[in-house]
Amino acid sequence: MKLEALKRLIFLNWYVQAEHFCFTGINGLDKKTMSTSFKILNEYIAQGKLDKEFTWMLSYYSSWDWIILEFSEPELAELTDLLNQ
Question: Which residues contact 18 (CB under 8 A, 6 or more apart)?
Answer without folding.
Answer: 64, 67
